[in-house]
Amino acid sequence: MRTKIKQVLLAKEPSRLEEKEVIVTGWIRTVRDQKAFAFIEINDGSTLTNLQVIADATLPQYAELMTQLTTGAAVSVEGILKKSPGKNQALELHATKVHLYGACDPARYPLQKKRHSFEFLRTIAHLRPRTNTQGAVLRVRSAMSFATHLFFQQRGFFYVHTPIITGSDCEGGGEMFRLSTTKPSEEFFGKPAYLTVSGQLELETLALALSDVYTFGPTFRAENSNTSRHLAEFWMIEPEMAFADLKVNMECAESYLRFCVNYALEHCAEDLAFFDQFIEKGLLERLKKVAHTPFAHIPYTEAIAILKKADRSFDFPVEWGIDLQSEHERYLAEEYCQKPVILTDYPAAIKAFYMRQNPDGKTVAAMDVLVPKIGELIGGSQREERLDILERKLEAFKLKKEDYWWYLELREYGSVPHAGFGLGLERLVLFITGMENIRDVIPFPRTPGHAEF
Ligand code: 4AD
Q1: Is 130 in a helix, a strand, or coil?
Q2: What is the pLDDT of residues 120-142, one digit of tens each?
Q3: Residue 148: its pLDDT value, please?
């Protein structure tokens, strides 16, 4: 039975190590041929660290084997695990049997030992998971997905599935992908259908039955924004709570984010140390601070005053009523607060129709969590639960009542205050790893003009 390299490396304290037989599998990262023997580094993706294998001339057909053991080749190695005399590793595997699964022509293999740019690696998205950085990103991404389920399940939320194909534009931005069949004249669903931009509207129906629910799935936006923070296909986590107001919502968002940070610090230590060294110096300090410091809270109106007083000029002028740009969001989180900040009570006109109107009549009970490096990481609100106000809002937003009949009925039959938010998984992974570009934290990024692989 094969053992994961992570398990092998964790197996025993080197000082207490008994010599042990193991079988490992993986892809060769490097080979150093010393004639009578060779050092072969192999990696199976389970951990950042490679396992050093020592193959020597006593192996059957050693000379021929050595011509095939090249970077990128897939192998299994059976051998004895021993304490290593070298300084770079505690353990090494002395091979007694090497099996070549798949050879890899070194003259053609694009992943050479040197460091490749992230731009180049995007062009070989089918091979880049084998690099150190991508391996670490994918392991952190997996951990954040798991931490998400853990957090909400522990709090008694139910995991529900909202549809990917939908008839409604939740955010009202009109940034939807329209669905058609290969026979374009046919309207398969009998009416226009789109890929979801958010599961929220359907999620609200489930919250108004199960009280606390969350959904976690792919989300699609045809925004033509070629930035390092936007994807056309991304994964969103959306919790929704009944009998809850904005305060409960903010507490949940803050606890969830902090839970994810702590989870990463505890369970992804090796990968985070790698990011701290090679991607963002000071990453671990930044994350530890987030884990321990309460977030700042600022109403939108106050944030505008702060931005106006800032000792710097912004590309987009600041006025009450503007939709904040990334430069404003980052100034508030990175420089003014120097920690995550929750902005609340935005002007009604720049937020979606479903947000609850505040008593001032001008603002809504919205909340965005802005974090250093990224800007907006979470967007949420308390929902408008009052039928008459919601109907007026639909009118003001020029949305047809008929399209939202079922959403309106929720306000007719046992309506309650309820609230929720959405967090983009990729932005969370950027925040946790210090990676700069959102295209490098999802295996197959979809952006305007790019849907290769
Ligand atoms: O602020 P947004 O648009 O909120 C909603 O969709 C609400 N319906 C959520 C809810 O209340 N249930 O999006 C939520 C989050 C953003 O804060 C951001 O992290 C992420 O989704 N996001 C994107 N991530 C990558 N690429 C894009 N194009 C994104 N658009 C939003």
Answers
A1: helix
A2: 999 999 999 999 999 999 999 99
A3: 98
Q: How far is the CA of 393 from the centre of ligand 1 (A)?
A: 21
Ligand 1 midpoint to CA 326 (Å) = 14
The DSSP H or E segment spanning 265 is helix 246-267
97, 21: one domain:
yes
Check whether residue 146 and residue 251 sit in a common domain.
yes
Three-class secondary structure of residue 217 per DSSP: strand
Contact 423 CB / ligand 1 (< 6 Å):
yes
Q: Is the CB of 204 under 6 A from ligand 1?
A: no
DSSP H/E element including 36: none
Output the six-digit token pair for 184.
């374009």
Three-state secondary structure call for residue 309: helix
Per-residue model confidence (pLDDT) at position 178: 94
Give the integer Cα–Cα distance in Å for 430 and 261.
12
With a 6 A CB cut-off, is 366 part of the ligand 1 pocket?
no
Residue 205 lies in a domain: no
CATH number at residue 298: 3.30.930.10
Does the beta carbon of 421 sit less than 6 angstroms from any atom of ligand 1?
Answer: yes
Binding site membership of 376 for ligand 1 (Cβ less than 6 Å): yes
Residue 173 or residue 430, greater confidence: 430
Residue 450 burial (C-beta neighbours within 10 Å; 0-12, 13-18, 19+): middle
Closest ligand 1 atom to the C-alpha of 223? Answer: 28
CB 212, CB 239: distance < 8 Å: yes
Is residue 16 predicted with pLDDT exceeding 60?
no
Q: What spacing in Å lies between the alpha carbon of 379 and ligand 1's midpoint?
A: 6
Does residue 55 sit within a domain? yes
Instruction: State which ligand 1 atom lies nearest to the alpha carbon of 221.
Output: 28
Q: Is the pLDDT of residue 245 over 80?
A: yes
The pTM of this model reads 0.97
Say whether pLDDT at 173 is over 80.
no
